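Figure 3 (text version): structure tokens given as input.
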């Protein structure tokens, strides 16, 4: 899975929105300026976030966007999926039970990539906006092993 700019920007913008004064709508122009994201692109992202129920808009002077849920109930996976990012690692289509190889079979590495995609999804599903804001991502239980630690210790 390659997380595209759209997914990263969506998460960045949602974290920005979540850090602003609660109870006050935030204009997209403010988020765009702080996060250095083009406003038209951010408008497209927020249209998808709104359609998926993660934000709601307030019209008029002083209008803007607000989170629909609390920061502790808004998951990074929901944000990424709302902007139509894929968290799957296989090249098979979701609806295809047959597989992606020529005679409609699964490749030998299918289960490996599907398992990795599930791990990524479960990790992103366990991280809330609150975790990101509180800088608790690396200390989060879903991230229990440091990358530089070996998976197995070989005993002589």
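Below: residues designed for each position.
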């Amino acid at each position: 899975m390659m997380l595209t700019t759209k997914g990263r920007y969506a998460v960045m913008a949602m974290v920005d929105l979540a850090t602003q004064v609660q109870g006050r709508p935030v204009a997209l122009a403010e988020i765009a300026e702080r996060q250095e994201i083009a406003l038209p692109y951010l408008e497209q992202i927020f249209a998808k976030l709104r359609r998926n129920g993660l934000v709601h808009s307030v019209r008029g002077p002083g209008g803007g966007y607000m989170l629909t849920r609390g920061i502790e109930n808004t998951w990074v996976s929901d944000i990424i999926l709302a902007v139509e990012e894929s968290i799957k690692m296989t090249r098979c289509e979701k609806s295809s039970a047959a597989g992606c190889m020529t005679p409609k079979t699964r490749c030998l590495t299918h289960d490996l990539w599907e398992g990795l995609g599930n791990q990524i999804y479960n990790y992103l599903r366990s991280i809330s906006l609150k975790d990101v804001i509180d800088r608790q991502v690396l200390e989060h239980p879903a991230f229990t092993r440091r990358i530089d630690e070996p998976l197995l210790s070989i005993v002589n």
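DSSP finds six helices and two strands in the chain.
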